[in-house]
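Weekend entry, working from home. Most of the wet-lab plans are on hold until the incubator is repaired, so I used the time to fold the two sequences that have been sitting in the queue since the last round of cloning. Logging both here for the record. First:
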Amino acid sequence: MPSVLPDGEPAPADGALPASVLEGAVDRAFGVYVHVPYCRVRCGYCDFNTYTASELGGGASQAGYASEAATELSFGAGVMRAAGLPERPVSTVFFGGGTPTLLPASDLALMLARVRDEWGLAPGAEITTEANPDSVDEAYLETLAEAGFTRVSFGMQSAVPHVLHTLDRTHTPERVPVVVAAARAVGLQVSLDLIYGTPGESLADWERSLDAALENAPDHLSAYALIVEAGTKLAGQIRRGQVAEPDDDLHAEMYELLDARLAAAGYDWYEISNWSRTADTRSRHNLSYWTGEDWWGAGPGAHSHMGGLRWWNVKHPRAYAERMSQGLSPAHARETLTDEARHSERVLLETRIKDGFPIAALSEHGRAAIAGLIGDGLIDGRAALGVAGAEPRVVPTLRGRLLADTVVAKLLE
């Protein structure tokens, strides 16, 4: 089952935001995330806030969900206006889940239209939905493109049948090139998501998946090491000895192979787990998370952030639907980040990206760690020294990406 929501400060029923969110808001981009909490099958490794039909129970339905989420989007726009936040057209919209494309394409179009009506869309706004390869066809994707979507992110995960089986994925490898071609035919950019380190997956299996992904020539590619989350089906299988535990050394080999193969194919890493063909095909929505921009997260369990205030919605679709029907904020709780917490989070996130973290913004102890990190081959020495007049920044090397937690720990000691 999905992980438990954290506790926090009580969230007001009217969603009112404190005056602190106004500071610097005019200089921050604004995005929208819409969580669609439905899946046809619960994958054994997943602890996201998602539900199959059998898990929903009464009082919640997929059929009414688009209307409920649209209600929250209007509610959110009203809350932001009441707080006195500057008018900012939406730069990025991301539909995630779950499987957003289990809903009719017209439902996604309806929710996007509500975003456009309430806030407006910035010129060139990036509009993305996640999709399973077996949850869409060309007609579905054409409806999305006509509604204003610009990207689709397919959960490919692997091209090897036994790996897909272990992950409980429902599509076949042969389906991926079909939907990639369909997305391209209607003018959508394509991102592929991969997972490496699945129990039983060999280095040769992983290379086969990379070959298949590159044959599709996606605009963008994300690749994540499998993490075994407590309480998942996969965690239970490992505990019972039914499948092997992930091997950290093999994970590292897989990542090195991944980075080398993508670089050779013309892709550039811009975040530890993300590569793009060009700067224009980076995921601007995800970059907004890593650089501390503002976003409203709509839907059960969705998280939002405004100027150091973070809040998260009630988890279950039934509780969410009840809040929406009563005109109440769906927020479960919230927290105001201290200056120290905001600094630590900024170091944690911005040292993951190729643009790096400005050394001048580190504490004295953090700056003192730079020489050792260069000597250990964990950060780029030229970037840290500010070669050719550039601002000195912390940018991880390949080894530093593999040991990202060590880099962050040294900078925050």
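Second, folded right after the first finished:
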Amino acid sequence: MNKPVIVTEETATAPVVVSDAAPVLAAKAAVAGPAYVVLAGISFSHFLNDTMQSLIASVYPILKDAYALDYAQIGMITLAFQFTASLLQPVVGHFTDKKAQPFSLAIGMGFTFFGLLLLSVAHLYPIILIAAALVGLGSAVFHPESARIARLASGGRYGMAQSVFQLGGSFGTSMGPVLAALIVVPFGQPSIAWFSSIAFLAIVILWRIGAWYKPQITTKKSAAVERHPDLPDSRRVKIALAVLVALLFSKQLYVSSLSSYYIFYLIEKFQVSTQAAQLYLFLFLASNAAGAFFGGPLGDRFGRKYVIWFSILGALPFTLALPYAGLYASAVLTVFIGLIISSATSSIIVFAQELMPHRFGMISGVFFGVAFGIGGLGAAVLGKLADNTGIAFVYHLCAFLPALGLLAVFLPKMPKHAH
């Protein structure tokens, strides 16, 4: 009979099942240190993936003018993209907890490839929605298993690895407006097809990463599982997970309000050009990327709970000031907002993973999925609100979202090894 295995963050490094060999694999990985080549590859793939995703929001002004769409219809495009990503990510994570799929990342990127090609030739609103949903489907397959690979390659530095992984995605998100301004605006909707070459490059890289990942998979018979005595009890774990979801809600909904409608806000309030507005959006998204990178190591060093406190609540003074600022002051404020509010991402995700290390893929999928789902639903609701009340009112309302950071007081104190 197999011995019970105490589940800690170390045993969570095993990619498939908890087995007698899992602690040994994790210990060897920690001694060997981070696999930097793999981390760089998965982060770069995240960069390529999220560059293609952010392209959708960046071409909204083109689609709005070409097909006479209102803000609610723009929000529905975001919802179509993020609904597939949100709905399927926990399912993918739960499935890969039981049976890892090392080459699923490359296959999932194929959906993104075809989604971009379809978007470049779509001339009907339903086809645009289908194309956006295909790109979202690629994202649903990509995130849970790639987050697992990043942790497996971390060498025990989980916050650092998650930040490197998040940096790729955040920087990719920031590149969408720049590429749209330089390529899609001058050359039109058909030029979106050129970005399918990025998807093809990602497929090649992810196939190679899958070849590295496959030998790491343990297939031994699952052992009995018991909780580590230092972890919170199941009731406190449920409360903590609910708090983390609420904090992610406040963060992601505010970020969604900027990424989806900030271009329109600048055009309407300050009469800037579409290209100039996209570059202002790039400033916010680039600061988002920088904040995501520094948040993980800070969580490793000082504790994730403190980073979460600072990240969500610390952005509140800047979000409250934004609706009253001029053009250049708005640019400065969004840089501070991006740096502060995005530093919570890695800490929230790793905190949740440490609460339930034996359900690593499912938890990763839920939290990545919640992030996408909140963004999609929020974009649709905020778009409808903007149609009825004006885009400026949306930013007055969203300014109070970081106040939900006060909920971090209900997060439990984690064992020292979890930091």
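Plan for Monday: verify the second prediction. The longest strand covers residues 5-7.
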